[in-house]
Amino acid sequence: RWIFHWEYRLCGDAYHLYRGGNWVISVRSKLRRLFSPILQFCAELAGSTYSNEIMMARRETCLDRVKDLFTLCIGTSEAVLKGYNDYCGCPIQYLPAFVDKNRMHANRSKAQKTSSIIFSGRMTPYRNTICDEIGIELLNSYPLEAGEAWNKDKQLKDTEFKIRRLERDTTTLGQKQAITFAREIKEAETPSFQVLSSGIYEYTSRPKSAAYEIYIPQAASWPYSSPNRTILSIECGLIPLDYGEFSDHDINMVAIKAADNNAIKGILGLDLNQCYRELDDRVDKYNEGQRLKIPDTKAVLLRLCDGDPGTWDDVDLSPLGGKLA
Description:
By secondary structure, the chain is α/β, with parallel strands linked by helices. The chain is about 50% helix and about 10% strand. It has 13 helices and 9 strands. A 5-stranded parallel β-sheet has the order 4-3-5-6-7, sandwiched between helices. It has a two-stranded parallel sheet with strand order 1-2. The chain has a two-stranded antiparallel sheet with strand order 8-9. Strand 5 (about 210-215), helix 10 and strand 6 (about 240-245) form a beta-alpha-beta unit. The chain is globular and about 80 Å long.
């Protein structure tokens, strides 16, 4: 990382030039192009990417310039705030982050969910490797992607006809087994694992979608989960799935844990309705835990702005099941 800090201090923000800038910016831009192949090699060797390291170096340098200007530092991750404890020179405070249950249920009902998984995060070399491994592991597992059978016109009509026949065939297989097989065929329309090329909002508005979204750490040694992404997954109507064990945020208790690729196959075999019921229970417990942290946050903010405590009592938290205490 120190190499990229040095590069940023030398080259600044001169990334792209088009009929603009003075000779200093032009020189910095040429230096950046000169150093980029070497730095790209260093980033990949460290399991990262050139663009990510440039971004992080820029963030850290800019934050270092303004760190003494803050009166209060707040954040939705206590683990991240610990890193700022001695850095900013001001009080730090955790800001409770709730799951909006109204949005969760509304988005969940938009699409028919199947026992399959999506990944929608920013791709890194490590994530790309894990995605490949998961895809290979699930290639011949339930549910399969049916492909041509779900195309329009004749193939689709033929598939739908066969499903209706199977649902009525109670003699050969028995009623319960026939209905089960028919349901599994319908669920095979979506692949077991998919890396999204579209936005998650667009994906979850489709008639059929995966039920699970997986979080994969940025690197093999990456210690943090992604609390905001986990909450986004839940509120988009999905079940969050963590690849590994994390304990840096309370929301980690809500996500299902997958220790390895083999565990993912077992998760896809679980009863989906039961998984959603258990998710609702965990969300309720999580929101209740966040609600207990409100008084501390309230006190810190009131000391900062000398506000009237009475104004806090009018804040509506009905989607979360109550009001501020």
